[in-house]
Amino acid sequence: MRAAIYVRISRDYAGEQLGVQRQQEDCEALAGQLGWQIVDVYIDNDVSATGKKPRPAYQRLLADLRAGTVDAIVAWHADRLYRRAMDLGELVEVCKATNAQVATVNAGSVDLTTPTGRLVAGLLAQVATYEVEHKTERWARSWQQGRELGAPVTNSNRLFGYERDGATVVPTEASVAREMIDRLLAGESQGSVLRWLDDAGIRTTRGKVWRASGLKVYLLNPRIAGWSTHKGEIVAEGNWPAIVDRDRWEQARAFLSSRTRAYVPRKNLLPGLLFCGKCKMRMISGGSTRQAAYRCPSRPNMPGCGGVSVSVRYVEDMVESFAQERLENPVVRRRLTRLRSQPNRGRNKELADLDTRILELEQQLEEPGTPVPTLVRAINRAKARQEELLEDMNTLPRVPLPVQGGPWPEDLGRRRELVELVVSRIEIKPLTKPTRNVFDPDRVVITER
Hints:
Elements (H helix, E strand, L loop, with lengths): L1 E8 L8 H17 L2 E9 L10 H12 L4 E4 L2 H4 L3 H14 L2 E4 L3 E3 L4 H34 L22 H15 L4 H10 L12 H8 L7 E4 L2 E5 L8 H13 L15 E3 L7 E3 L6 E3 L13 E3 H17 L1 H11 L4 H20 L7 H23 L17 H11 E6 L15 E5 L1
Parallel strand pairs: 1-2, 1-3, 3-4, 8-12
Antiparallel strand pairs: 4-5, 6-7, 9-10, 10-11, 12-13
Helix pairs in contact: 6-9, 10-14, 12-13
């Protein structure tokens, strides 16, 4: 009897394949007792049988059974081969067609060619499904109980102001969080707070520039006030120190929750892209329609030298001409098209799978006798992969390219999107000598994306 050994383990935290090696040793011993000749070993390491992720070795095994190169299967347990009824159905069809035998170390022989054998196999599949669902329920209940007892949250990306353990305060970041709230309650806008964060070089825990949506979500998070939450609701006092005063956090939450702002059409093309060549601060736009200018600010809440300005009309015409020229370049268009053709669907799914895996790993950290260093390394690897995926997704252009040789769009928002495809930063140098109504293009330094 030509036998194939199939081994699988759902989670290999260290990546050392020790679990599948133990399964293989037991299967080899069983094959020897049965007098079967082992022709191949099929290994699916770190692959679940309940998820949607394919099992390459298992599919290769089925193909070899159909081809007649294998007569029997040896597995450690039936749930190594299948956990879902749909997988069992496929295996039954193959075994019935080829008269293949199945022997397991811990569940005995499973004869899928007879009605009784298939009944037993179906019962085993139902038991395996029950175990998975029951385990998921236990994890979810354990997670909820931890939140109700005020346990720190460690299943997501590090919260600004705390270490990854969710309880140790990062003093410098905690000071920034308090100043965010102080500035808002003092009357500053969210935009002003964002500019302050950007100018001070303060980044999120992912190393990204703060955005309005992220800032609001962060400041509305009860965890920074020392509250434990479950599904967005405060359920207990957290077992970690608050980094902001609760009364002031409540005031900030009421302020942010009540603020709504209608859409304001864009008036100028380049806000946020222009920087002062003297003090390196971001320039703002203002002035009358005929004399509109971008200038370096000089206000108490907007630090800058106030010594550089440039005409809106001239600099926008120059930058748009540059963008049009670059987007007509066949090399640039091919590169942008290639980047856009890289789908995010697979990345989104992998991100979701990584979130699930991190949650499972961190829940297992709470169980007695778990290999903590190994689990922590696995968690860090998963989170590092998340960072890589997000970085790739953030660099993909999503704006459709204009028709080559066609007209430039009239909509200002659409024109801004096209400019941002090829321009990352524009610096305006200060005047070297007084001029009157004469635009010097050499003052404009465009950094191509």
